[in-house]
UniProtKB/TrEMBL annotation:
A UniProt-annotated Pfam family: Exo_endo_phos
GO MF annotation list: 5'-tyrosyl-DNA phosphodiesterase activity; metal ion binding; nuclease activity; single-stranded DNA binding
UniProt-listed SUPFAM superfamilies: DNase I-like
Chain ranges of the Endonuclease/exonuclease/phosphatase domain: 8-237
Entry's Gene Ontology cellular component terms: cytoplasm
Source organism, top-level taxon: Bacteria
GO biological process, one term: double-strand break repair
Cofactor(s) this protein cannot do without: Mg(2+); Mn(2+)
Protein name per the record: Endonuclease/exonuclease/phosphatase domain-containing protein
Keywords, alphabetical: DNA damage, DNA repair, Hydrolase, Magnesium, Metal-binding, Nuclease
Length: 257
């Protein structure tokens, strides 16, 4: 049995907002994921639209931080953490949210985050991922965390997650290959930004070993990459569609006394 997730930075309320929301909603409906993690959702319109039009029964959000998790499976537990280390170069509220679900009868935690964005903020991102990794390690459970990390897999910040036993889902499936979720050549919205940043893969899904013992990754590919007939894209980022096959048993990670 498959377990499918979608991850996307929605680009907030930037125009053409209403059209972009329709494009995002249509693509999510097309793939019928069990879980969706969105960033830059700052007001409840998109949340209610997705719940109503696609039928997600459960939602967990912090709209101040722009984070939203939607799930067809019941959320057993929820956690929200504000990063102690906030960048001095921006005014954004950086947090991460976590929820425990039963996906295809298997218990796991789903995380959603959005790290500081400026190129000079690598220290801030590294400190934030240290906080994130510490919280995820303490769960002692299968974890899949995703979001807009604003840095590449080779960065110091992402090395923190790797050293904590987390694996990049795309790299696990396609070693040596690369794609861009921030693509100046393909996405014209990037030309409207004040800061022009290079093509990069900055949106990621990371899984720990316990998650891989229950959910075997099958595919991970870019979506939200096609404009409509007027040339409008769903977002300034491309998003992810990842599929896992449910297998194995949830491991007991309780420390021995």
């Amino acid at each position: 049995m498959n377990f499918t997730v979608i991850c996307l930075n929605t680009w907030g309320q930037n125009e053409p907002f209403e059209k972009r929301m329709r494009l995002i909603t249509a693509e999510i409906r097309k793939y019928k994921p069990q879980v969706v993690c969105l960033q830059e959702v700052f007001e409840p319109v998109l949340t209610q639209k997705l719940i109503k039009e696609i039928g997600f029964g459960h939602a967990f959000a912090n709209l101040a931080a722009g984070l939203l998790i939607l799930s067809h499976d019941r959320m057993e537990d929820k956690k929200e953490v504000k990063y102690q280390h906030q960048s001095t170069l921006e005014n954004n509220d950086r947090r991460f949210i976590l929820t425990e679900i039963h996906a295809n009868g298997k218990k796991c935690w789903i995380g959603n985050t959005h790290l500081s964005w400026k190129a000079a903020d690598e220290t801030a991102r590294t400190m934030q991922t240290r906080e994130l990794a510490a919280t995820l390690d303490a769960l002692k459970a299968p974890v899949l965390v995703m979001g807009d990390f604003n840095c590449t897999p080779e960065s110091e910040a992402m090395a923190v997650l790797s050293k904590s036993g987390f694996t990049n889902v795309y790299d696990r499936l396609y070693p040596g290959k690369n794609v861009f979720t921030w693509d100046n050549q393909r996405n014209p919205y990037l030309k409207t930004h004040a800061a022009i940043l290079p093509n990069r893969r900055i949106d990621h899904l990371y899984m720990n070993q316990a998650f891989q013992e229950v959910f075997k990754p099958q595919s991970c590919r870019l979506i939200f990459t096609t404009p409509d007939e007027a040339g409008d894209f769903p977002s300034d980022h491309f998003g992810w569609l990842a599929t896992f096959r449910t297998w194995g048993q949830v491991p007991d990670l309780t420390p021995s006394l």
